[in-house]
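Why predict the complex rather than its parts? Because the way molecules touch one another can change local conformation, and only a joint prediction can capture that. The input here totals 882 residues.
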Amino acid sequence: MEARVSAITTPRNETAPHRRTKSYGFSRRSLGVELTSHFGCTPGQLTAVRIPTSRGIPKPRNLTEQVDPEHVALIVKKEWKLSYVTPLYQFRHTQLQSYSKQLASFLVAEKQQGVAVEVGQELGFKVVFTAALGLAETEDDAETVLIQIQSKSAFAAEGETAKVVWSGWLSCVSGDVEYLKALPPDFTCLPLFGTSGAESLTTLVMSWFERTFDCYFGPLGINSTNLEWLAALWTGCHSDTNIRYLKLAWTVPAQPPLDVSYTVHPQDAWELWDSIRQESGLRDTVDIEEVNCFIRGLESHFFRHFRIYLSAGTLTKVATSLGSAHKDGKIRIASSDMMTSVLALLTECALLKMPI
Amino acid sequence: MDDSAKQVLRKIIRRIPSNKLQNILSKWEHLSKKQFRSLEFTQAKWLLCDNLLSLCEENDLSMKHVTELEMIYRIENPAQGSWNVCQLIDPSEEAVTVDSLTFKDSFKAHLKHLISHVSVKMKKHEDNAIWIRIAWGDNFTQPNHLNPTYVVHHLQTPYVFVSGLTAKHKPFLHQALIPSTHYGGLKDVHLSGRCLTALRDLLMRQYKQAFPVKHPRLLQEKSPVPSHPNIETEHAKHTEKRLQMAAEAFGEGILPKLETAVYKLETRFRENGMPGRREEPFRGVVKFSSSNLLESLKNCVSSGMASAPVTPLLSSITQKGRNYFVITDKGPGVSHTQGRKI
Amino acid sequence: MSLKPFNKLPELNTANVLLVENEERFQKKLADAIVLLENNVNVIVRLARSLPLPLENAESRPRIDLVVFIVHLNSEQSLLSAETSLKHLDSGYFLGKVCFLVTGARCGTLPYERLTSLKKMAATLNSPLLMTEDKTAEGVNTAAQRVLAVLRVAAGLVPMATGLYLSSLTRCTVPNDPDWQNQD
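Output of the joint prediction:
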């Protein structure tokens, strides 16, 4: 994976873009030569983003050493709905205060126009943009931005804490370096957007961003391969933090649809994972082969009892006490230890959805 | 009308959907025709509730009448809560001759003997089922009508269906049921679900079953015949066989409506080509859920998503009438044990 | 016993196609569309779930001119079943008498690896890979037309064209990996 030809072209090039339309890759049943790298294509077929087939094991560390614990607390233990966003034009981390005011007045203006917002006695909204420094892993990553919308009640006394009605964050963790380097200078790439709160507020915030920074939002799902990665990474943490359970949920397309949930005892799950790791030689990195072996093992144990092919269904949800992920793009990170690795995986998913 | 009765009435009215309210209230028979007509059912529910409360005050109704209303609603809509099934065992000779009146008196007496403050209401339904509503108190407090327990028992059968029972009160209920029905004990059948009739049908095998036969015979559901003479199916026989096996395992036609099945696995992990062959069991819990579980499982088998023959773990749901299993290794194959006895 | 392409005599003005699909859903619609579309030639469609085919039918089964594997990308099982079925096909079929039909290739929520491994498989076997859309009537009709086009050639009903010739034009290609270029 060392020698890399630059695989990215962006519209910045004056020449006609190369067609790098194909995505091919490593298959556990591949009939041909096994490749160690894997390129995925963005939907516009003009950009190839590297998808790693092996990932480094996150070392347990205290995230609060590099990130403000208050910021971390804002992200953990909440369920976020994920979207992807294209690079933002002329977004400045130095102007967060001004953005706060602009968004607040935008929300109030929309409300006056009769756009449906929360019914209540809110006089107005107070918006807070904060930069959560320290989450970025490489120097090409832009710093994470946290957004909170607080409602101001008409009857609030002085000094009364405002109620947070909506929160969100934009993040880029370990983004594909070549992609980030190839962006034109005025663009900031924060492709991962997480929201928690009323849907109406989310659409308003998105439309403000679209107007101000000429970007585009879209829904982000987590496909079964990435869910399996998360399951394996979380299970691997059991030796340090008790994951308490490993729960996998599938939906089998019968009439009516059948939901199957398999909750494995954490110690047994860890021992299975550990034996797979031992067999392939303990390394610093985790291969997708090991992840596949782990999940197929669980599926075949299930098959031995029930004779139902789980591979005919779709993996919808993965959960441990460290967090949960749903294929519709919902993520919950319960512990700050694994936060960077999870965000890195999700950033990768978001980058793959870039329209060009 | 005291405050607690009002509170219970409000809760009941809130729970009953607006479209059913008129019907239930007309069956209640504690409002005069004039009062009933004075209620406007198109109003907002809270407004209607206030009007109803004032009418009840006029008629000087008490908690007793309010609980009747709840019972009427519950009997008509048994799918409100989830039901657990128990079975009476060791019948004595008098078990078959128990009649409803004797049972009612005996049950009430036994229960009141165990707990002083308890409110019991019993009603016989058309299909010979006795419905019992119990509001539990203890030695110091009045019965709590906000969380009652419902029990349904068909006299000529050993089955008892219970909904809304806490662990604290379970022994009392059992100790009242056993002597009044003249049985020797009560055990948990490990069957639960929302649809009372489905549970009953499953237990008493009142759904249409298919039995294994040597020659394929007319199944209710057949695989569709190809539409054009130029189209031929290679695996037609296999499809027929799969449909047959699915019907044998789960039944034909309309199947009883179960929602979940839970299997607690404690078998060893023995997959070929995989490391981790240990002697200790690989623990886990598998839960199947669906809007109609048996239909889903049957469809899995007939469409090939489950490979035939149907594993005994799944067919036990209908064969044994239960949906909670603990599976351990016993002997060469994978077998299952009976659930815990109470 | 594997399916052999040339162990039976062909029939006059007839083409036989075998549709193999694990889910047995799309093949029925496709079969209906195929027999309705073709007027000049007698097209027989045989539907199967997987290979090997049941032995009972071996006598009555005519010579199969084209085997079409239908793979649904939303199910891993679909792909696995197609792979195992391939083993039961005589190698003579891979000279232009096999075709792959894929549904769900546009769906962004599916793992990329399935389509890529299928493409690799098709490329290695020198067979065409056709993408289809199975939910609309139009999609089914288009798929039927394309299958018929390949079938006519494979059955020898198109003068001056053979299955092998067509397959060299239509086969699935897999691009070069930039890493490969650097590794020599």
